[in-house]
Each structure stands twice: as structure tokens, then as C-alpha cells.
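FIELD: query
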Amino acid sequence: MANESTASISDNVVWHRATVTRARREAMNKHRGAILWFTGLSGAGKSTLAHAVEEQLHRMGCRTFVLDGDNVRHGLCGDLGFSAADRAENIRRVGEVAKLFMEAGVIVLTAFISPFREDRNKVRAMVQPGEFIEIYCQCPIEVCEQRDVKGLYKKARTGEIGQFTGVSSAYEPPDAPELTVKTAEMDLQDCVQKVLSVLEVMDI
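FIELD: result
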């Protein structure tokens, strides 16, 4: 019965073509839309770097928005837990939202652990080549634990938090990211410049 209902709804859903196109939005913005996907362990510096890059892009006159892991789980993904299935759904939803922002001509920056390659690759497959820029924030887990102001790693080590990435759940590093930044070794502004250099090369 549920399948019939879903099929009926799907048959009646039609994509509406807007008169204001992505090309017109990008022309007004004077830059292309893109998805900057920051991935890495908790504490690797994803959010810090994403917001620092956004700050610089904003000063340059770009239209930007950061989708942050914790913020999204307060609303859009507030119904999801941290099982493998829920993590996959979390990333799927974020990917769809990021794609909409990109279609609006915005440079959208996402800061999510997104531990599984398959989930990240599914988001990459949602868009055209060159529109998904994967940025791996590479940082030793020991450094991530030292930075852990929330005490999450400690709770994970003592079993208070289950399925915690890097401790009781795997993190799969990207095979071929557009950029790897070693956030434990590099100054924040140097990391920002590396990201901006990639955007320049890719003509964003």
C-alpha cells in the first residue's frame, strides 16, 4: 500500500523550471556556485577552516553559506541518530541542500565528519564534475583529542558515547580529494590560502 502511495505521489511531482536560471544568478554574483566539502575527524578543524574560508570569500564579495554538522542536526536532521544508516541519510540530506544552494549560485561550504567514502561519493555524483570540491582536513587523532573541548573523545573512550568516529566507528579518508590540508602542521591562514588557490585554479 505504501509503495502504491509513493508511486502515486511521484507520478504527480514535476520539476518546476525557474525563469531565473543558475547562469543568471552566477552572472550577477560574478562567480560560479560550488560545493566545498570539508571532511575529517572530529576536532580536525573542519568548521574552523570552513568559516575562515567563508570569511575571506565574503570579504572578496562572494555569496557564501556554511552548512555545519552540529547546526544541521538541530533542525533538518534533528530526527537522526548516529547509526550507519542515519549517518548516510544525514549526508544525503546535506548533499541535496548543498546542491540547491549551488544552483542558487552560492559557494556552499559543508563541515561534516562524513566518515564513509560511499556517502561522500554519492554527493559528488549528484553534481557535475568540478562542482564538488572535497577538502580533507588531515589531523592525527591524538591532536584531535587534545583539541576536544567538548570531551567527546574521553566519553567515547569510556564507552559513554557509542559509534564515535575514530574510536568505535571507522573513518575512511578520501582516496583522491581535490585538496588535503594538514591542519595539525599548518597555520589557519595558510590553510585558507590553499583552499582559495584551488578555487582559483578551478575557476570558481
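FIELD: remark
Confidence is low (pLDDT under 50) at residues 1-8.
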